[in-house]
Predict the structure.
Amino acid sequence: MRIAVCGGTGTVGRHVVRVAGERGHDVVVLSRAAGVDLARSPDAAVDAALAGADVVVDVLSTTTLSAKGAVAFFEASTRRLLAAEERVGVRHHVALSIVGIDGIDASYYAGKVAQERLVAAARVPHTIARAAQFHEFAGQIVARASLGPVTLAPRTLTRPVAAAEVAEHLVAVAEGGPAGRAPDLVGPADDTLAGMIRRLSAHDGTGRRVLEVRLPGRYGSGLASGALRGGPDAVRGRLSFDDWLGSAARAS
Ligand SMILES: NC(=O)c1ccc[n+]([C@@H]2O[C@H](COP(=O)([O-])OP(=O)(O)OC[C@H]3O[C@@H](n4cnc5c(N)ncnc54)[C@H](OP(=O)(O)O)[C@@H]3O)[C@@H](O)[C@H]2O)c1
């Protein structure tokens, strides 16, 4: 099967590309680094990249906490992809979203809710697959929310999962054909974002100080509510955060 991975240079996208290749699929990557900018490239370039693809796996992202910015990014990229998929005849659109975001329609999550809405209403057959925060999310927050040696971690109750396992799930979803909605994927154990960053720092010996802050508003209360941990029907990943720290899945 030919699988187009939009965001195939990203945190989870790199794993999707690797896993799909290992499973014998023909893989094409769309990202700015790979020469396709979904905000700027002409339709002809997007169509050429998607030509012959059986499935599009959308693991694009943007770094913003602005609801307006997130909605603009996810709506524009999703609309562009779906329109191109219709033109070139792609028969399955797989979108990666986030467990438990219903009712937390704010900040970055407003963009994900808007993306899900567009995908669910599209003419291209689809599957929306939601995953919990990646183990790699701890490092992403260190990169994005640090002042020198201090990292500000929003109070977040999570059940994190390795991006490598999310990629395996997404490739299986792509292979399975359009299903509307895939089972949620969460990790094997409850955690907090601050706890993850502290253990990441201890493991890597970076001496980072972590300040846990309760963010205000609907976004902050959503993060702290436990909703992101998913429900009893969620599929559980196998690799815990602590085992992941020194694992090959992290190194790759
Ligand atoms: N991080 C988490 O904990 C987590 C948990 C659950 C679900 N998710 C979802 O998983 C998805 C991927 O997240 P991630 O953390 O892997 O993201 P990421 O590491 O930030 O990667 C984002 C990807 O999008 C590409 N991209 C951004 N703007 C683009 C543009 N204009 N045109 C083409 N490509 C563009 C980037 O490549 P270039 O820079 O080369 O363009 C990169 O490959 C997101 O939808 C996110 O909501 C994330």
Residues 7, 9-13, 30-33, 36-39, 59-62, 96, 98, 112, 131, 133-134, 137, 140 surround NAP (CB under 6 Å). Residues 158 and 229 are 5 Å apart (CA to CA). Residues 2-251 form a domain with the Rossmann fold fold (CATH 3.40.50.720).
